[in-house]
Write a structure and sequence with these properties.
The chain is an alpha/beta fold. Helix content is about 25%, strand content about 25%. Helix 2 links the parallel strand 2 and strand 3.
């Protein structure tokens, strides 16, 4: 398994279909998506189960509400991919996201982190994170991995699973 897409889910029934559809639309197929239903009181859990029934690459964990950090950590604990991709239940991947990461890794196969462009929406306003304007940068940080690589806008990064093993999200 090349990629594990980790998706913590809490009260995201309005958005989770679009999130999962964006993962299913990837142009490469070597991925799994690990959805962690964090005790969501709405239909999120049922929607996740329906997707898991339709596609064996969708895995669902149900847990009592413990917060987004614990949900991410639960997903990481069962992830089988060499690379970890993080989405929230209301995030989308562009259809070529993993393909672009693949191309980047072909150029720098020993990279530990791939930094990607990220675009956010807030009340109709668009925020473009990073100056890369679509470029993907691979970084070899095997000797200088920060003690908490998940600070800041971590969704812009794809992490080699082995590199961040044992480093938990703090909530």
């Amino acid at each position: 398994m090349k990629y594990s897409v980790i998706v913590p889910c809490y009260k995201c029934a309005k958005y989770i279909r679009a999130t999962l559809d964006s993962v299913l639309a990837q142009k490469i197929a070597d991925w799994e998506v690990v959805c962690v239903d964090d005790g969501s009181p709405d239909e999120t859990g049922a929607i996740l189960e329906a997707y898991a029934t339709r596609d064996k690459r969708v895995r669902v964990i149900h847990q009592a509400n413990a917060g987004v950090s614990d949900a991410r950590n639960a997903g990481i604990a069962v992830a089988r991919g060499e690379w970890l991709v993080y989405l929230d239940g209301d995030d989308l991947l562009s259809p070529h996201a993993l393909e672009i990461v693949e191309d980047c890794l072909a150029q720098v196969p020993d990279a530990d982190i791939v930094e990607c462009r990220s675009v956010s929406f807030n009340d109709g306003e668009v925020f473009d994170w990073g100056e890369r304007k679509g470029q993907v940068i691979a970084q070899d940080v095997s000797k200088a991995i920060p003690s908490d690589p998940f600070g800041g806008c971590f969704q812009r990064f794809v992490f080699r699973h082995e590199t961040v093993r044992g480093i938990a999200y703090k909530g």
